[in-house]
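Example for tutorial group B:
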């Protein structure tokens, strides 16, 4: 079985590292690995004025927005076709999301849809699936209209725009080290501050944060070995049962908390990244170039070899890292069933089948049906193909062959 979202970065050495931390809890109180992670991130983002580490990308965004010190009910522009973590973080700061439609060519915010005379105070740009936004136009727009620019790099660590790493163009940038992101520490994230005027405010807020509970950290450290076991036993109908049982007894946690689907803030956010998870992030960061080169090569192969007439492909950008390669087609659920029969387990329940995913109430974040028609079309038609480090080229060739033979 070939999975797309079951901890796709997880390798054997990551499992052993997690187990090492589980049996050595007396070492959890240090900060050596947190400092090491910051040093590595500074080497990637040398322009950064400050870097702060968190237990998740949404914790980073929550604090980053708060550091802007915007008046209550100020508008923040963002694209639809995004994770609920982004509008939730806006709402949790008593601000108002203003949704903009996307382009079908790259699934990023369509610059032409931005308001000519914005009343918003900030703009969040998402480099969707690792494909960089046209940052020249975005930066000029924000400077002209005096908007703070926040880059959402949850999908795009290592992507570039005109040779410069994304995350270095805005006033700040958000990174995520979630279980299905570019690198993974199960939970984790960072806030990159590029505007020196915001450093003091962010530092003062950061000092007030605490670490997650001991039990929460244990849950995250159990995730690599349990997921690895589930993955290798999935074909025997055990894997799914193992994951469900471990989540039910709370030995591991889900990636999204139930409260978030109802746009309520879980108590775990915002908090700091524990030392063991910082070490997991460091370990994966050493693999970043290998991971991203593999993703780019797989995406390039898809771009050149998928020839099924009913499938629309994104415009290939060689500077993108392609965390997923997302195609458009009619009735994607039929393709999901067809692929499963041929050994590919590809879920469609996230990334993104709603304008904001996951969400039980789009109106709660201020999104109205029909507001972003291109986004809603893409929601109906999108299908994510794997590019992750565990996918071999033989797997990719098999997948492309199946796609090209498929009769919708």
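The residue assignment follows.
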């Amino acid at each position: 079985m070939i999975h797309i979202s079951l901890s796709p970065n997880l390798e054997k050495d990551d499992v052993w590292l997690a187990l090492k931390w589980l049996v050595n809890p007396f070492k959890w109180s240090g900060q050596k690995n947190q400092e090491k992670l910051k040093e590595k991130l500074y080497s990637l983002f040398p322009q950064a004025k400050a870097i702060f580490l968190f237990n998740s990308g949404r914790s980073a965004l929550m604090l980053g927005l708060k550091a802007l010190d915007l008046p209550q009910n100020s508008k923040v522009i963002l694209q639809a076709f995004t994770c609920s973590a982004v509008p939730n973080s806006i709402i949790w700061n008593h601000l108002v999301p203003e949704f903009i439609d996307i382009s079908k060519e790259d699934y990023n915010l369509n610059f032409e849809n931005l308001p000519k005379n914005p009343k918003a105070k900030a703009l969040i740009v998402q480099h969707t699936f690792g494909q960089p936004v046209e940052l020249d136009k975005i930066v000029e727009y924000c400077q002209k209209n005096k908007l703070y620019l926040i880059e959402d790099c949850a999908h795009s660590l290592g992507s570039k725009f005109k040779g410069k790493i994304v995350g270095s163009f805005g006033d700040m940038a958000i990174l995520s080290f979630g279980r299905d992101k570019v690198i993974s520490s199960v939970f984790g994230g960072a806030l990159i501050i590029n505007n020196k005027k915001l450093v003091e405010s962010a530092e003062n807020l950061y000092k007030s944060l605490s670490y997650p509970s001991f039990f929460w950290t244990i849950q995250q450290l159990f995730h690599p070995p349990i997921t690895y076991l589930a993955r290798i036993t999935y074909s025997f109908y055990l894997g799914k049962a193992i994951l469900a049982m471990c989540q039910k007894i709370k030995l591991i946690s889900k990636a999204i908390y139930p409260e978030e689907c109802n746009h309520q803030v879980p108590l775990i956010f915002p908090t700091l990244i524990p030392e063991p998870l910082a070490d997991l992030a460091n370990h994966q960061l050493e693999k970043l170039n290998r991971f991203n080169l593999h993703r780019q090569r797989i995406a390039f192969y898809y771009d050149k070899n998928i020839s099924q007439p009913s499938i629309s492909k994104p415009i290939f950008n060689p500077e993108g890292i392609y965390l997923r390669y997302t195609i458009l087609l009619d009735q994607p659920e039929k393709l999901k069933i067809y692929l499963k029969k041929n050994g590919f387990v590809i879920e469609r329940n996230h990334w993104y089948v709603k304008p904001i995913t996951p969400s039980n109430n789009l109106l709660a974040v201020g999104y109205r049906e029909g507001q972003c028609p291109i986004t809603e079309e893409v929601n109906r038609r999108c299908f994510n193909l794997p590019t992750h480090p565990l996918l071999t080229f033989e797997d990719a060739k098999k997948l492309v062959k199946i796609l090209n033979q498929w009769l919708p």
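Residues 107 and 128 are 6 Å apart (CA to CA). Compare this with the pattern of hydrophobic and polar residues in the output above.
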